[in-house]
Amino acid sequence: MVPEATDAAAVHPPASPPVTAITGDEVIRCIGLTKQFPGRGGAPSVMAVDHLDLAVRRGEIFGLLGPNGAGKTTTVGMLTTRVIPTSGQALVGDIDVVAEPALAKQLIGVVPQVNTLDRSLTVFENLYFHGRYFGMGAKASRAAANELLERFKLADRAKADTLTLSGGMAQRVMVARAILHRPAILFLDEPTAGLDPQSRIALWEVVQDLHAQGQTILLTTHYMEEADQLCDRVAIMDHGKILALDTAEGLKASIGADTEIGLQADGDLDALARVLESGDTVTRTQVTGDVLRAYLRGSARGALPRLIARADDAGYSITDVSVTEPTLETVFISLTGKELRE
Amino acid sequence: MTTAAITTDLATTTQPAASVQWSAFGSLLLRDALVVWKTKWAFLLRTIMQPLLFVFVFGYVFPKIGQGIGGRAGAAQFSTLLGPGLIAVAIIFQGIQSVALPMVQEFGYTREIEDRVMAPVPVWAVGAEKIVSGALQSVFAALVVLPFVYLVPSTPVHFSFNWPVIVTLVPLSCLLAGALGLTVGTRVEPRQVPLIFSVLVLPMTMLGAAYYPWTKLGAIPWLKWAVLVNPLVYMCEGMRMGMTNIPHMNGFAIYGAIIGFTLALTWIGIDGFRKRVLT
Ligand SMILES: Nc1ncnc2c1ncn2[C@@H]1O[C@H](COP(=O)(O)OP(=O)(O)OP(=O)(O)O)[C@@H](O)[C@H]1O
Ligand SMILES: [Mg+2]
User: In sequence order, what DSSP letters do the residues of B137-180 get, joined into one string?
Assistant: First the structure.
């Protein structure tokens, strides 16, 4: 990227093989990683991350998908030296982040969940000083900062006060800052939370671009679309535990259904679920709140009228119907019995 | 594309070289220097205002209107003893202003120190940098205040500089101020900021032997001993030892206490910083 200087020759690691042909080298490993926060003021202690085992491979975008409080930020915090594990081990490369935090920090770039841009500095200075903190020379750091501002379409904001940036721009500056020192691993904690759809797509493009250059990325999200579209593999997380881990396709396939029919009806939905399952069309059902989800093999065509007729016969009047393909949300619901966003 | 980057080749990663760590430390200082430069007028204003008003009222107005402190001779001596006191106050004040207040903000809600904490140096080094940065700003504050305390009083000011004392005690006092700033900054919540002034800064300065020599407190023995918990007492007495011929506290006591307070506050401050940064 940066044409001159020796460290510029590094660019990013060469594009890694596609995910299906895994080389087996794992750049992040969590082994029984646990964080228990002591309860304050008589409150019970919180098991934020509970004996987590995880391996992220070189060059992949790995997604941690989970609802609020699942332990995503705590997991990232431990991997990035900021949260001290209660037990277990976290390794980036071969480095134990607890034993050698300074060394680990050299390998990682972090975009935290909240805006942490230095408000006393301009956009350019934020990037420039970041490079200097990582031991880059003045010239190399300036060149890298300018190059990234250009690439992230922020060049016209170089001299801007960071407080004047929109949410999407601030997020892009934070990503630019995090990759400026060419980290082996990039952590993105809810990179698109709170962004409008346009900014979100712009940020996805940035992330995909980095991925294409071989950047290993661990991102957390509670948007299933984000995990689905962006990540090579997704770990579904809740209550500090990983409930399932696979490619998005694999996770959706695990549902064993091609179609999800969401029904709303008056009356006892659990009883209706038993009624529907007794037929041969529905492979499984799930009730969350006032929605009954019925999963089928094949398409809804033909099956839907039969389902509605069956419900009708049992004395239910259906008030709302939706037909979708299974999503990661479906997977989450089938694993936890609750919705991702509540 | 062929050369493996130091940062991306995980297999061969080694401890960040000492030179990289020092360079990171230097860059953290450079960042603070730039921020001071950007806010230089505010820096000067907040540094000059308090000592200028003090030296103006007590060193210029009082003698002029005959509201002397200890008669004519006393007034002249007062201006001389006030100077070192005000410089010491400026030093300690700067530690609070330049380290504690921004840090309370950063930990309270802006969280902007995060990126510096992620620099490839131990967390304690990021805290230590704040102490050094605060100390450097305190040195500047002392230099800025010096001409005012010399020139403003309407009665003669007799400074006689003892350079070996100055070049050792000023940096030590400034480090003490930076360490105090870090200690306060890591233990105070944003809503408690007004309390810093009423509960800490004001009592420290009023009872810090800044406006009277500690040796004279013999008249109020309990106070003479009680104020010894206040590090500013030693700084003021030390400045008096370095700048004037006014009788002062024993030099060993001054050095011992300042070094002791600096070490203790550095330890407490860095410990507080680690606790705020790591969970
Ligand atoms: N410093 C802390 N002290 C006490 N409890 C904490 C602390 N940080 C997090 N927790 C608790 O740990 C659990 C996991 O929090 P965490 O922030 O890791 O979740 P998350 O998945 O990142 O959620 P979100 O989507 O809201 O960001 C929560 O129950 C939270 O309240
Ligand atoms: Mg979070």
Answer: HHHHHHHHHHHHHHHS-SS-------HHHHHHHHHHHHHHHHHH
Give the integer Cα–Cα distance in Å for A55 and B101. 42
Facing A103 at nearest CB: one of B16, B115, B277: B16
pLDDT, tens digit, for every residue of B48-81?
888 888 888 888 888 888 776 655 566 667 888 8
Whole-prediction pTM:
0.84
Residue A8, token pair as written in the block:
């510029």
How far apart CA B140 and CA B154 sit, in angstroms, is 25
Nearest to A182 among B5, B21, B23 (CB): B5
Closest CA to A225 of A243, A252, A245, A244: A252
Q: Please report which helix (H) or strand (E) contains residue A111, including its range.
A: strand A108-111
Q: Chain A contact for B2, CB < 8 A?
A: yes
Structure tokens at B252: 């060993």
CA of A193 to the centre of ligand 1 (A): 16
What dihedral do alpha carbons A241, A243, A245, A246 form, nearest 10°?
A: -160
Pairing of strands A61-65, A233-238: parallel
Tell me the CATH number for domain A257-325: 3.30.70.3400
Ligand nearest to the CA of A112: 2
Inter-chain contact A80–B118, Cβ cutoff 8 Å?
yes
What is the distance of C-alpha A93 from the center of its chain? 20
Pocket test for ligand 1, best of A33, A74, A75 (most atoms within 8 A of CB): A74
Its ipTM equals: 0.85
Contacting residues of A for B1, CB less than 8 Å apart: 9, 11, 14
Which of A114, A76, A332 has its CA nearest to residue A227? A332
pLDDT at A10: 40
- Write the pLDDT tens digit of every residue in B242-256: 988 888 888 899 999
Distance A86 CA to ligand 1 centre (A): 15
Q: How far is CA A303 from CA A265, A279, A287, A317, in A?
A: 18, 11, 19, 17
Which segments in chain A show pLDDT lower than 50?
1-24
Site of tokens 């910083």: B273
Give the residue extent of every domain in chain A: 2-252, 257-325
- CATH superfamily, domain A2-252, is P-loop containing nucleotide triphosphate hydrolases (3.40.50.300)
Q: Is the CB of A319 under 6 A from ligand 1?
A: no
